[in-house]
Specification:
9-stranded mixed β-sheet; 36% strand; alpha/beta; two-stranded antiparallel ribbon; 4 helices
Amino acid sequence: DVGALRLTLTRGPGARGLTPPEAPTPTFLITAGPLPPDDPLALIVARTTRRDETSVLARVKHLGYLDNILARREAVAAGADDAVILNMAGRVAETTIANLFCLIGGGLVTPPVSEGALPGVMRAEVIRLARAEERPIEVADLERSSEMFVSNALGIRPVTKMNGRAVGDGAPGLITQLLAVRL
């Protein structure tokens, strides 16, 4: 069977409070689970929370997921699978679980790390293979995308609905299908 492993490293236990211990004892955790489905996603734009693109934490994968949890709860309540998180300037950062790519006017684009996107390994590979352009993405750009997909360490998933409307013709696009085979 195929599954997914998650490796988590923390600084380990310490006294109550925010000051880390002087001599930390790191904790290394390995968890295993099934791969998530690879079926198409329906997204909404989250209204409950924003990503602070100026924060150093916007560029680090960490365990402080409260903004992502709130945005995901909003998506589920709206009947969607996931939510696009906007940055403080009102532009696209990423989704709660992945980087976002859009085909707009014939060109593949993704938000740059400076917009609040995590600099993921799969994101870098998609940018390289598909020659995606990193540029700010406005909410209006989402509405005019002819194709959309997300990427994370577990792979690529097509997006076929955004805010209740079909993306393109409502089917996974050619670029998504080609990249999924390649990666």
